[in-house]
Write a sequence for this structure.
């Protein structure tokens, strides 16, 4: 009789889900801030687990154009601004704590994913983190690209903070 071959789970073999990491985040009992970077945008979701995943809040960097952002919607600055808006929305909806889910994104210091985390923290969410992972302030503002982009960043940041003012 031939031995049975154990196949990996479908999403694991497609390299879409790290089940060990997912289980550890779910066991924390806190909602997850799930950040994904696509080819064009940055997507951020607040997901709670009660037997199944329930999406509570969503923010896509495409919405930054409504606030005056005219540059790329997937760069480090846009990722920070999307995280800031998302954090402010969560704070407004009385979400205080969460854990950060990076998925299968490779974790490197100064990665775009950490500018999303910094934005969420500045927006008012309490998420466990390490300060040394964040990109530099110049990279977040876009000062390494142009002075004009840095000015636009400050303007949009002010618009976000005014729109989702602290209660």
């Amino acid at each position: 009789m031939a031995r049975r071959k154990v196949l990996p789970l479908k999403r694991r073999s497609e390299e879409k889900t790290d089940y060990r990491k997912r289980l550890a985040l779910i066991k924390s009992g806190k909602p997850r801030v799930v950040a994904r970077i696509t080819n064009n945008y940055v997507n951020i979701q607040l997901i709670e687990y009660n037997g199944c995943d329930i999406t509570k809040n969503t923010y896509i960097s495409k919405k930054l154009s409504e606030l005056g952002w005219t540059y790329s919607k997937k760069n480090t600055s846009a990722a920070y601004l999307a995280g800031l808006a998302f954090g402010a929305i969560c704070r407004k909806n009385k979400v205080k704590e969460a854990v950060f889910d990076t998925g299968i994104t490779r974790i490197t210091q100064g990665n775009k994913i950490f500018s999303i985390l910094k934005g969420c923290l500045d927006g008012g969410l309490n998420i466990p983190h390490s300060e040394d992972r964040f990109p530099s302030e110049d990279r977040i503002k876009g000062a390494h690209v142009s002075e004009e982009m840095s000015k636009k960043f400050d303007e949009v940041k002010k618009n976000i903070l005014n729109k989702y003012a602290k209660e």
